[in-house]
Inverse folding.
C-alpha cells in the first residue's frame, strides 16, 4: 500500500471540504449552512476546516473563487469558437452573463457572494478576468479594431458590464426573460468602442 505524503493528505482534505461546502451552500445558502453541515458529510472535524480555511467565510470565499474561475474558463471556451478576437470578447462576456441562469451560480456567486464577500470587483477571480480582458483590449487597440481609448478604463468597463449584467439577471424576477435583454445591451455598449461599427454586428 502506497502511503500518501502529508501534502497529499492536506490537499485531499481541502478537496473534500470544498466539495461538501459547494453542495451545502448551493442547497441552503451561506447563512443557513452550519459548520456541521460542512464537515459531517465528509467525516471531518471543525478543526480541519479552521486549519485549511480559517472559518466558514474563508471556506465560502474558496468555493466562490472555484466556481467563478470555472465560469471564466467556460466563457473562454465559448470565445475560442469565434473567428476573431473581437467576437471572442463579446462571446465571452455573453457566456458569463448566461451562466447567471444556473442555480448554483445564482445562489453562491451572484447572490450570496456579494453579500458575504463584498464588492465582486475585488475578488481574486474577477481580477484574473480583468487581466485577460486588459490583454484583449490591448491587442484590439494595437490592431486598430478599437477607437483610441484608455486600456485600463475600457477593460474595467467591459468586465464590469458583464459582471453587473450577470448580477442583475441572477437577482431579477424573470432571469430567463431578462437574459437576452442583458446580452443585447452588453453587446451594444461594447460596440461603442469599435473604430468602425459598420458591418460589425452579425
Amino acid at each position: 500500500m502506497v502511503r500518501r505524503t502529508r501534502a497529499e493528505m492536506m490537499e485531499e482534505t481541502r478537496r473534500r471540504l470544498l466539495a461538501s461546502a459547494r453542495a451545502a451552500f448551493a442547497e441552503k445558502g451561506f447563512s443557513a449552512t452550519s459548520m456541521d453541515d460542512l464537515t459531517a458529510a465528509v467525516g471531518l472535524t471543525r478543526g480541519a476546516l479552521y486549519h485549511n480555511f480559517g472559518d466558514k467565510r474563508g471556506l465560502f470565499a474558496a468555493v466562490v473563487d472555484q466556481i467563478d474561475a470555472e465560469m471564466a474558463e467556460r466563457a473562454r471556451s465559448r470565445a475560442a469558437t469565434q473567428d476573431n478576437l473581437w467576437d471572442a470578447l463579446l462571446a465571452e462576456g455573453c457566456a458569463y452573463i448566461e451562466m447567471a441562469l444556473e442555480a448554483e451560480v445564482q445562489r453562491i456567486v451572484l447572490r450570496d457572494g456579494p453579500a458575504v464577500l463584498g464588492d465582486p470587483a475585488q475578488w481574486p477571480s474577477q481580477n484574473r478576468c480583468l487581466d485577460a480582458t486588459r490583454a484583449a483590449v490591448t491587442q484590439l487597440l494595437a490592431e486598430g479594431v478599437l477607437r483610441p481609448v484608455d486600456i485600463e478604463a475600457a477593460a474595467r468597463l467591459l468586465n464590469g458590464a458583464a459582471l453587473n449584467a450577470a448580477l442583475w439577471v441572477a437577482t431579477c424576477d424573470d432571469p430567463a426573460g431578462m437574459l437576452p435583454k442583458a446580452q443585447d445591451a452588453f453587446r451594444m455598449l461594447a460596440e461603442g468602442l469599435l473604430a468602425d461599427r459598420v458591418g460589425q454586428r452579425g
User: Anything to note?
Assistant: The first helix runs from residue 6 to 28. The CA atoms of residues 48 and 162 lie 36 Å apart. Residues 198-202 have pLDDT under 50 and may be disordered.
